[in-house]
Amino acid sequence: MFQSLLSLIHRLHAKQVPATGIGLFRFFYGLVTLQEVLYLIYFNHLIFDPIPYIDVEFPTIPFFLGLWALVAFFVVIGYRYRFSLLANYVFWIVFVNFTPMQRDFDGGFDMFMTGANFFLLFMPGDRAFAIDALRRKLSTPFRQYRSYPKPMVSALAYTLPVAICLGFLYFDSAIHKLFAEHWRNGLGSWLPSTQPYYVSALDMSFLLNQEALVKTIGYTILVFQFTFLFFFNRSRLRPVYLLIGIGLHLGITLSLNIYPFGMGMLIFYTLLVPFSWWRRIGRIVTDGEPLLTVFYDQLCPLCNRTVLTLNHFDIFRCIDFKGAQDHAGQYPALSALSQEVLLTDLYALDRENRLYAGLDTYIQILIKMRYLSPLGLLLKMPGIYHLAAKKYRQIADNRARVACTADCVSTEPLPDLTYYHRVFELYAQQKPKAFARKLAKILVAIILLQLNSTIHYGILYRFKLNKPESPALAAVIKSSNELISVSQLFLGIAPHALYLHDHFAGYDRIIGITYTDTEGREQWLPFVNEQGRLLAPNWGRVHSMWANIAVTPTINETRLKKFIMKVTAFWGQKIGLRLDQTVFHLKLKKIESPTEWVDDQLHKNFASPWQEIGTAIWRDGSISIELPSNINEL
User: Fold this and answer.
1) CA distance 350 to 364
2) How far apart are CA 48 and CA 195, in angstroms?
């Protein structure tokens, strides 16, 4: 087996493929992280304050969340790649494991995002769609502009993260699903979608009411997750797993209110797109003939660096840059201009042979790049245009020109000092056998850590074998737990037993909160509505707090009161209620969580009536909550 792994590593590492997918993976990973940090900033008082807005224990939390948002933005744009990914990794570990997020506000995808970040640290995510790629081009002394070859990377950088972060996750999840009756009945995707707490604002009942369809989806998911690890990298099956996986996680994102989990999983499918597809997509989105031809002074360092920068951001290849000295004479529209005049500005010709100069050239460049067209249109606005033209003239008239030496026309590749290049390219090229053996050993260690988690929770826990009478076996299980703590903290290896029978069994009631306004009318707090749905933006980890911890099949009164206190204090402040003068009413409605298919179950749960079971009243920063002692029997 070890030799097979060595052979696979050699074969994948030797295969050079476009860096496009990895660049997009980093970009979307950063966006998902950034939106989650902005979410935490919005809910920071609910999540981190012992009593929202009243007892603020961590006043510096917004500052550190702001730093995290800045780091996440750096990840998005690929700036200071290794530093920003390392800082982002530390932020995930600290916030997820050492704040109230750890227990009360689990996002459902935190461990997954930590593991993805760990792999990004060793991936060449700064070679495509990254500011760092431009910084490397600009880091050398004056060089004449030239087109650089498309960045290539080893296929290993695509395959390993998908196999470990998706393949192992799916296989672990599938084992847990076998113990859930509704999954065995083909209703794994149907049951959560009939529960008011879990659904998004989209009414998907037209699909849920098709028994054959939902069972087909349920069984397809089981087969997909069991087989993904073994077949996803086979060329003929790769598109099948790609399309099914995108459909699965897009469905989660749209139909359930755990959208961060769905988006976090979706980003990995940029690594599963067949490499030939990237080439075809590139041919589709780029123009065969440039929309604009730009002429620049080849002996001007500033011009060359400017053109190099513009070309880097021209991702759709709409602009063609040519040296004025070598090419201007080939165009009649430019032949009337003297060489001296031609070199004083940046000139451009569009497809209609219209001539542009100076600032107008930059405006056309931005517009023709498509995604930067708003910036080009902004520069055309009166006032802004005149200020920009004045600044442009000042820079253009004071730029320096130099004599071109052999160095400035050098075609030598740019130096690459990145960690990925030094370890995964240079070292692997110099010592291929040693590289493959070391990487194989690391992979075996990760596989063993994943197997430890899967066996511990997926088998021992399920069969109630995790509390042995034998001292020797107890010591082994204790060691297993310690390993899980470490692997979960740093690698995100955790059990993926989501929405199984032990979650929904007995989940037959939900709780909402209303309040009496100043005019004596009863209003729903913008949290749970009259249908029982959790309203946006109370999705993601706030949903997890209420639907998975506060309200469970067996309600813990202490925890429920804690979260009633948090929710009423937070939303009361948000909507401008005077807490000391507001009475909150606690409502309960009965729902059903069947393990057999029932027609229109979602609307039946929506229509179930509410009954008032208690009140919550604030006085001088303290809350008094009245709940029935037999709440678990209602």
Assistant:
1) 9
2) 28
Instruction: Give the side-chain half-sphere CA count within 13 A for 414.
Output: 22
**What confidence score (pLDDT) does residue 405 get?**
66
Q: How confident is the model at residue 410 (pLDDT cuts 50, 70, 90)?
A: low
Cα–Cα distance for residue pair 38/429, rounded to 1 Å: 43
Question: How many Cβ atoms from other residues are within 10 Å of residue 238's Cβ?
Answer: 17
CA dist., res. 191 & res. 256, Å (int): 11
Angle value at C-alpha 416, between 414 and 422, nearest 5 degrees: 150
Element holding 92 (H helix, E strand): helix 81-97
Q: What is the pLDDT of residue 212?
A: 96
- Could you tell me which residues come within 8 angstroms of residue 463 by beta carbon, excluding any fewer than 6 positions away? none
Tell me: the pLDDT tens digits for 351-366?
999 999 999 999 999 9
**Backbone torsions φ then ψ of 252, nearest 5 degrees:** -60, -45
Strands 509-516 and 522-524: antiparallel
Residue 167 has what DSSP assignment?
Answer: I
pLDDT digits (tens, 9 = 90+) for 380-400: 999 999 999 999 888 888 877
Query: Residue for token digits 């009414």?
Result: 203
| Calpha distance 548→113 (Å, rounded) | 20
Rounded to whole angstroms, how far apart are CA atoms 178 and 175? 5
Half-sphere exposure in the Cβ direction for 291 (13 Å, CA): 15
Query: Which segment, 281-295, 306-320, 445-459, 583-597, is predicted with the most confidence on average?
Result: 583-597
Lowest mean pLDDT among 139-153, 186-200, 249-263, 541-555: 139-153
Token pair of 49, please?
Answer: 């304050």
Strand partners, 512: 587
Q: How far apart are the C-alpha atoms of 506 and 552, rounded to whole Å? A: 8
Mean pLDDT of 496-508: 81
Is the bond into 537 cis (omega within 30 degrees of 0)?
yes
Helices (H), 98-155: 110-120, 131-138
Tell me what pLDDT residue 498 has. 76
Q: Can you give the pTM of this predicted structure?
A: 0.93
Contact 188, 597 (CB under 8 A): no
| CA diameter of the chain | 96
Backbone torsions φ then ψ of 583, nearest 5 degrees: -105, 125
Measured between its terminal Cα atoms, the distance across the chain in Å is 56
Q: What is the spatial distance between Cα 271 and Cα 232, in angstroms, rounded to a whole number?
A: 11
- Phi-psi label, residue 516: left if phi above 0, alpha if psi -120 to 50, beta otherwise: beta
Report d(CA 532, CA 263) in Å as an integer: 24
Amino acid at residue number 282: G
Residue with tokens 């807490």: 579
SS3 153: strand
Give all strands of the β-sheet with 292-296 in edge-to-edge order: 319-323, 292-296, 347-350, 355-357
Q: How far apart are CA 207 and CA 193, in angstroms?
A: 10
